Amino acid sequence: MNDLLLKQSNNSAKIEVFATAQAASEAVADRILATVRSNPKAVLGLATGQTPRRVYAKLVDAVKNGQISFSEATTFNLDEYCGLSASHADSFAAYMQRELFAATDFDGDKINLIDGAAPDMHAEAKRYAQLLAASQIDLQLLGIGTNGHIGFNEPGSSSDSRVRIVELSEETLNANQPTLIELEEVPGKAITMGIADILGAREIIILATGAAKAEAMRRSIEDLPHAACPASYLSSHGNVHWFLDADSAALLSK
Ligand code: PGA
Question: Fewer CB under 10 Å: which end of the chain, C or N?
């Protein structure tokens, strides 16, 4: 692959650096496609945000071109804002419909999303935790926040955290503001899968693109696991694959 600049692996982590965000995203999409080809019933953990949009675009193309079917796959999304229903354009449920589900053949009965407008959010977190506990995620896709968050596990999250309601940090509120479609303010709370839920996946793939993620990448990959940078917990997992573009990898020591 011409765009692959660097490939490095140790016992537990594989790191691949690509020239462009597009090339890194395509490599992630290829990994998801390979997983579902070898196991059509794969359970996928899915992420939202700007980063995975190119990945989902490639999955949509693959379905349109008849290269894959997702009809037997199961999905679990990482998180959702508290207070937003699936019909709200700024909900992650609506994002998933726009970016992936509406244009592919995922079976609605096998799509698991958090209901951001549930009447009792504690009960909703418990419902989602039970669904996850009864499942085994085969492949978890992650983005990363500039503060090192994964899902909405903000700095300070513990490695044994599970699905729960969280307060979003100032940095996350600011980072997510430009992505809002209709809302004037980012909701201050969310429900997220916990770190322990994420680490329970058989395989984790994390995609980071852009210079804004470079410092978070350095801390995640080179620092010891620490609550101050939740993505650093990933180094305790045996099967993590980092897909970076050159900009997000710029601060890594070789
Ligand atoms: P982004 O968000 O892809 O929009 O940068 C990533 C994240 O917050 O996990």
Answer: C
Ligand 1 centre and the CA of 77: distance in Å? 14
Q: Mapped to the 3 state alphabet, what secondary structure does the chain carry?
A: CCCEEEEEECCCEEEEEECCHHHHHHHHHHHHHHHHHHCCCCEEEECCCCCCHHHHHHHHHHHHCCCCCCCCCEEEECEEECCCCCCCCCCHHHHHHHHCHHHCCCCHHHEECCCCCCCCHHHHHHHHHHHHHCCCCCEEEECCCCCCCECCECCCCCCCCCCEEEECCHHHHHHHHHHCCCCCCCCCEEEECCHHHHHCCCEEEEEECCHHHHHHHHHHHHCCCECCEHHHHHHHCCCEEEEEECCCCCCCCC
pTM for the whole thing? 0.96
Over residues 190-201, the pLDDT tens digits come to: 999 999 999 999
Instruction: Give per-residue pLDDT as tens, 155-191.
Output: 999 999 999 999 999 999 999 999 999 999 999 999 9
Catalytically annotated residue among 26, 79, 99, 245: 79
Region 58-68: mean pLDDT is 98
Q: Is residue 167 flagged as an active site residue?
A: no
